Amino acid sequence: MTYEQRLTDFRHYVGAGGKVEATDWMPDDYRAGVLKFIEMHANSEMMGAIPEREQIPHAPSLQRKMSLTAKVQDEVGHSQLLYRIAEDLGKSRETMYLDLVNGRSKFHNVFHYPTRHWGDVAVIGWLIDGAALVTQAALLESSYAPYTRVLKRICAEEQLHLRHGEDITLELASGTDNQRAMFQDALDRWWLPIVHFFGPRSNVDKDLLLRWKVKTRTNEDLRAEFLDRYVPKVLELGFSFPAPVPFESGGHWVVREDDIDWAPLDAIKRNQGPETARRLELRRSTYEQHAWVRQALAEPATQVA
Amino acid sequence: MDVYEVFRRSGHKQPFEHCGTVTAPDSEMAMLMAKECYLRRKEGQYLWVTRRSEIHSWSDEALLEPAADKSYRFAHAYRDVVQKRELARRRAGQLG
After folding, report:
1. B20 interfaces chain A, CB cutoff of 8 Å
2. Above 80 in pLDDT, residue B61?
3. How confident is the model at residue A303 (pLDDT cuts 50, 70, 90)?
4. Which of A114, A136, A221, B22 has the largest count of CB atoms under 10 Å?
5. What residues of A are in contact with residue B29 (Cβ under 8 Å)?
6. Residue B8: which domain range?
7. Which domain holds residue A271?
8. Does A227 reside within a domain?
9. Cα distance between the two ends of chain B
10. Interface touch A300/B37, C-beta < 8 Å
11. How confident is the model over A146-187, as pLDDT tens digits?
12. Do A150 and B20 touch (CB under 8 A)?
């Protein structure tokens, strides 16, 4: 069979809802596209652990400290699961780690921003995990089957994180004026990055991942779902939104596209976010300092008499 | 380092199910990695790991297709019971 014939068969197969396994034949740009997408997801779980990690020492109680630590561990665990399936597509884990710290691959925009205080933990844990869950739940229908199996587990844990984040939010929201001000301050700083999180409007004709059904829904569709689900919950608690201010229109919560300033996202795409360099440096030094652990683990155990 | 396939079982009434993969230098380390990755919340009580290279599968999935019509092996081959029961009743009514 020629490459062209295989490509046509593959296109029909995926078009009809067929699922692809790691060992199946796949077109080169499908493999490359899925690999890049999963690698970015893995990078984001890894780098996403860092902002919250920064706040572990500032947790208001031992219980909060333990639960946040467990959550950070989960996020790193997600990255391990994802790097593992990315490896099966033909890129070594070490190359992926090095590409990340050398700026050759990307991670999600929200993890390029600083955290200031415990209010940030509430916003990240509730709204950013909420946004992530909307996008990840949509990916459960992806055409790349190993990814969907890992996502099933990830989504289950993200559900827990969402409860965890909402719990922290509700504690602040029902607390002192100071506590409420902490949440509002964090929301003011994080709202635009959260709106960016879903990305600019998808170009349906050009987006290979949509065409191959690796992704099944457009960026604007996912953003719309997030706004509908979370904006009323935030307003109900008496908080307000900075630009782009969401408003009700035709029974839905929406933001005006002209109100979205895309410049900060463009800078992050060039790895020039406010915390990009510092966090990648932390990642690099951790990777280097732990070289002896990797080396020790790579050797099969030897019997000691 | 080898790729290990990980299986877990949640109780005696459940079969082992594949739950993912880890990389490790030996089976002992693979068990440890698998526990950290796949049993962090009591998702199972039993764990197996085995080298991916030890797992055998069809190279041609077409071999899984049955060679002939074997619908008699499935319940749906016997679903016209209602009509057949009616026929049998009528037949019984004809008996002297």
Report:
1. yes
2. no
3. low
4. B22
5. 297, 301
6. 2-55+66-93
7. 3-200+217-286
8. yes
9. 81
10. no
11. 999 999 999 999 999 999 999 999 999 999 999 999 999 999
12. yes
